[in-house]
């Protein structure tokens, strides 16, 4: 964890996911960084989002993708609707502290979509979108990344300001972080796991060092039954 930057990295240092078959995916344009807040940016939204129809939707909540789900299946490249996507890891304390604030966003912006995925389980997506540290928040329009949230102060209010400055959509004023938001769906409690790749690397290195040591001339003469040749 990089405490000064408020991020955990690299994303691949958490528990590894089972490898899957390689999939060809379209190359997307680079993500545009979020620009500083200003009067002009507040008047003119940078992203013209098509707000979804909320008729019949009773509960607005965050959707978390599992290891078998692909982000691109949830993004419509032929649409102009907007989706805020969070790359996180359950072992990162900064992701855990962000969780309750991100869980409350779907109620503040019911016309937008909100997704979250474990970056350690979706390494190909993390590489494609430049996610070298978590948490990482990207705003998509259709399947195209449009802006990245770059503030280290990750609260409900700063997230509201980011969405408003980018889309011009105002948040509902009566939404606040509740007790339910601390419980889920995004976990706010750190989970521990075994880094199998690191464990395998350590065991391999230890085995190699032990083998090389036993093969040296200075150790072989200590082993009973070994014949040694001495050169004069």
UniProtKB/TrEMBL annotation:
<feature type="compositionally biased region" description="Low complexity">
    <location>
        <begin position="1"/>
        <end position="15"/>
    </location>
</feature>
<dbReference type="InterPro" id="IPR013766">
    <property type="entry name" value="Thioredoxin_domain"/>
</dbReference>
<keyword id="KW-0472">Membrane</keyword>
<keyword id="KW-0812">Transmembrane</keyword>
<feature type="domain" description="Thioredoxin">
    <location>
        <begin position="38"/>
        <end position="168"/>
    </location>
</feature>
<dbReference type="Pfam" id="PF00085">
    <property type="entry name" value="Thioredoxin"/>
</dbReference>
<dbReference type="InterPro" id="IPR042418">
    <property type="entry name" value="TXNDC15"/>
</dbReference>
<feature type="region of interest" description="Disordered">
    <location>
        <begin position="1"/>
        <end position="47"/>
    </location>
</feature>
<feature type="compositionally biased region" description="Low complexity">
    <location>
        <begin position="25"/>
        <end position="36"/>
    </location>
</feature>
<keyword id="KW-1133">Transmembrane helix</keyword>
<protein>
    <submittedName>
        <fullName>Thioredoxin domain-containing protein 15</fullName>
    </submittedName>
</protein>
<dbReference type="GO" id="GO:0005929">
    <property type="term" value="C:cilium"/>
</dbReference>
<feature type="transmembrane region" description="Helical">
    <location>
        <begin position="196"/>
        <end position="214"/>
    </location>
</feature>
<dbReference type="InterPro" id="IPR036249">
    <property type="entry name" value="Thioredoxin-like_sf"/>
</dbReference>
<dbReference type="GO" id="GO:0060271">
    <property type="term" value="P:cilium assembly"/>
</dbReference>
